[in-house]
Write a structure and sequence with these properties.
With 413 residues, this protein is mainly alpha-helical. Among the domains are: 54 residues; 107 residues, Type II secretion system (T2SS), domain F (Receptor-associated Protein), CATH 1.20.81.30. Strands 2-1-3 form a three-stranded antiparallel beta sheet. Helix 8 packs parallel to helix 17, helix 13 packs antiparallel against helix 14 and helix 14 runs antiparallel to helix 15. The longest helix is centred in the middle third of the chain and has 56 residues.
Length: 413
């Protein structure tokens, strides 16, 4: 199969171009006509040296990776194409022709190649598990088995959109505190290295005992100036060590458990994680996935090792014949209201619908908590800034005040 470069015009008369793989030029023309493009020029692509697809090393170095927004758009497009009855090979040919990001073009090309070799769509996507993730691939596999691939793409698009919205809201809420903390760190560094040493030279001429706060500031400044290379190396090394530890199984478990106990932020993390669990479990249950298999997949998608272990604990209990509500209560992470809803859903056979209700409830709680995050953090940040400013002001100006008082006392005597 060769790669052909083509130019043509779409239904609106606009000039479009791209690349497609096919056995012959006629195959390329058939693919273009199928997606509503009238071909004008089709020719085999000329290789440029040893660089694949004519990309320079600089272009490959700066290639943008596939992100959540790309997968969200892909899911929406596949839902629309499947709903319209477009064959899957033709759908991927159209997506490849219209994609503007090289990484997505390569992804569609590889999936098309796998489909041409007779693989199922889920198996083709499994070759890119680092991009799609276990939950996405498992849902596609369920859609193929049940014949509900169109509905699965729609549900996956909604799921990815929720994930993106939660991340964006948390980033937006944390932007101000992060900026303030960074500014404080820079200010403290500048003061200790450049400003306080100047005052230290002035205070040396006083030949008197300085206040305790002033002596503390001078000692800290001297220590920072003398040891700043070690502080820099230690900070970078410590961050690298913590990062490597968090990537281990034990470190990830301990860090994820600790995040849930953090003040202010911990409650938001727990609610967002449980909302992700409820929506993922509801999607799998609605698609007809067995409960044990669904919980196995969901445990890998909650993005929290601690809660994931609790979900696996639920799965093990269900395998022993216990009810879902009893196993959920044993985890200790759900509220009484949620446990009651799970119990009702299990008794009525409407578990998937009530799981969606639980997901929406947690999502609303997460939204309210995120909106109040900045309001909760601002007083703490102002208090910290106030304490630092007070310490600096007292440490620098108290000796000057004392000297002024002493001078006035001598003058009056």
């Amino acid at each position: 199969m060769a790669t052909y470069a083509w130019r043509g015009r779409n239904n609106l008369g606009e000039a479009v171009s791209g690349e497609l793989e096919a056995m012959t030029e006629t195959g390329v023309a058939d693919q273009l006509m199928a997606i509503g493009v009238a071909p004008i020029h089709i020719a085999p692509k000329v290789a440029k040296g040893d660089l694949t697809d004519g990309e320079s090393w600089f272009q490959r170095l700066n290639r943008k990776p596939v992100v959540v927004e790309d997968l969200l758009l892909f899911s929406r497009q596949m839902y629309t194409l499947n709903k319209a009855g477009v064959p899957i090979l033709r759908a991927f040919a159209g997506l490849q022709a219209s994609a503007s990001k090289p990484a997505m073009v390569d992804l569609f090309k590889d999936i098309r190649s796998s489909l041409d070799q007779g693989r199922e769509l889920s198996a083709a996507m499994a070759r890119h598990s680092d991009l799609f993730g276990g939950f996405y691939i498992s849902m596609i596999r369920v859609g193929e088995m049940t014949g509900k691939l169109t509905d699965v793409f729609l549900r996956l698009a909604e799921h990815l959109e929720f994930e993106r919205d939660v991340r964006e809201r948390i980033k937006q809420a944390m932007r101000y505190p992060t900026f303030v903390l960074a500014a404080m760190a820079v200010a403290i560094t500048v003061l200790n290295i450049f400003v306080i040493p100047v005052f230290a030279k002035v205070f040396e001429g006083f030949h008197t005992e300085l206040p305790l706060i002033t002596r503390g500031l001078l000692a800290f400044s001297s220590w920072m100036i003398a040891w700043w290379p070690m502080l820099l190396v230690g900070g970078i090394g410590g961050a690298y060590a913590v990062r490597n530890y968090v990537h281990t199984t034990e470190g990830r478990y301990r860090w994820d458990a600790y995040k849930l106990r953090l003040p202010i932020v911990g409650d938001i993390v727990q609610k967002a994680t449980l909302a992700r669990f409820a929506r993922s479990f509801a999607l799998a249950s609605q698609a007809g996935v067995p409960v044990v298999q669904a919980l196995t997949v969901v445990a890998m998608t909650v993005d929290n090792a601690y809660i994931g272990s609790r979900i696996e604990q639920m799965r093990d209990g269900i395998e022993r014949g216990e009810s879902i509500s009893r196993c959920a209560a044993a985890t200790g992470v759900f509220t009484p209201v949620v446990l009651q809803m799970i119990n009702v859903g299990e008794e009525t056979g409407e578990l998937d619908h009530l799981l969606f209700e639980i997901a929406e409830m947690y999502e609303r709680d997460t939204d309210y908590a995120i909106k109040g995050l900045s309001a909760s953090i601002e007083p703490i940040m102002l208090a910290i800034i106030g304490v630092l400013v007070l310490l600096l002001a007292l440490g620098v100006f108290l000796p000057l005040w004392n000297m002024g008082q002493a001078a006035m006392g001598k003058g009056g005597g």
